[in-house]
Amino acid sequence: MQKKKRILLKVGSNTLTKETDNISRGKIEDIANQIAKLKDSCEFVIVSSGAIAVAKQFVKLESKQSEVFVKQALASIGQPHLMRIYQEIFREYGLLSSQCLLSYLDFKKSESKTNIVNTINVLAHNNYIPIINENDTVATDEIQFGDNDKLAALTAVLLEVDLLIIATNTHGIYTKESFQDKHPQTILEVGDFDALKNEVVRSRSSHGSGGMKSKIEAVSLSRNAKIETWIVNGLEDNFITNALENKVPFTKIK
What we know:
This protein is α/β, with parallel strands linked by helices. It contains 11 helices and 8 strands. Helix 5 (110-125) links the parallel strand 3 and strand 4 (128-134).
């Protein structure tokens, strides 16, 4: 039996909302449809943002606490709703899913790392797709700085995946000059990683907390582990299969 290619897919809030104020069920259907088509050859692990965005659809919290604590509370409310949406839609496509909440402390303890790997391997062996998010109620790093980009890279390295796909709202990384001229041109393949850092424009998405800078920092982690990383436009339909078939522009970093 041929070994399946293990892909870690990171989906940010901006992708899941399709740049609106609501989680897009259509986008999750698009992801499920693609995974269903690829399930015989590929094994997926998903790192998903979106818990805070889901909660904002239902509630408006009042508090005198710092904004980050309000966001942690929103994440607590939104996480089960987000998982319910994933599970309902994935089930329609014949896919099984599970929730895994991780924190950065988990990546600093050898026993925790072993437990993560063993658990996810059991899930994958039984055809469950792990859907991972940071445990936002006890940690604030991704809420403030990274929109799960770093978490995705650390998880990819720990699981020794074959490919890390970061879905964002651009066709990969654009050259700085073309972006500033308002005619964005994608850097298709990265040979000089240090030079790439100089091309990155400091920007943040409307819902996410990352932007391209946090993605480059994440890629540096996966690249050090010799994991190929693609930065693709997750707003497009069939963004995974189209990238695999080289039908769309995206940035490939080896």
